Amino acid sequence: MSNIHPLSDVQSENIGDDTRVWQYCVILTDAVIGNNCNINCHVFIENDVVIGNNVTIKPGVQIWDGVTIEDNVFIGPNVTFTNDLVPRSKKYPEVFAKTLIKRGASIGANATVIAGNTIGENALIGAGSVVTKNVPANTVWFGNPAKQKGEIDENGKIIYT
Predict the structure, then answer these.
(1) 3-class secondary structure per residue, 14-62
(2) In CATH, what number is assigned to the domain containing residue 70?
(3) Contact 113, 79 (CB under 8 A)
(4) Residue 75: phi, psi to the nearest 5?
(5) I want to staple 106 with a disulfide (CB 3.0 to 4.6 A). Which of 74, 87, 100, 153 is the partner?
(6) Model pLDDT for residues 139-159, shown as the tens digit of each residue
(7) In contact, 62 and 82? CB cutoff 8 Å
(8) Domain residues for 117?
(9) Gap between the Cα atoms of 18 and 53, Å rounded
């Protein structure tokens, strides 16, 4: 059974067991969220979103249509996802770009992930980075635009290059 704060607007019935949704969250009807997730306060999750198990989403994150987050992912505070590569007011694309965050990846605070990219398994994105292209598994990226700065092993040890 999930734990949903009464001051949240959770319209989805697709929320897994032991997932906690904090106050002031909005989760739309078709969103799917796995088991044992922690959705912190002030998070917005749109309809065409799939979130796996054991995911942590810190405050101030908006997850737009087309974003898939696999298991064991950490999304830091105020991470920004985009889904429209040519945004215009009141004009929407036929299909939003798809973004995939693979298992075990971590995205630091205030990073921006441009639509249509994949962040590989266990990759680490540094705080404030702007991800403009695909990120391979087990790599460390930071900067604007983000560039590969090293590799990370299964224990979280970073080897800078």
Answers:
(1) CECCCCEECCCCEECCCCEECCCCEECCCCEECCCCEECCCCEECCCCE
(2) 2.160.10.10
(3) yes
(4) -115, 115
(5) 74
(6) 999 999 999 999 999 899 999
(7) no
(8) 1-161
(9) 10
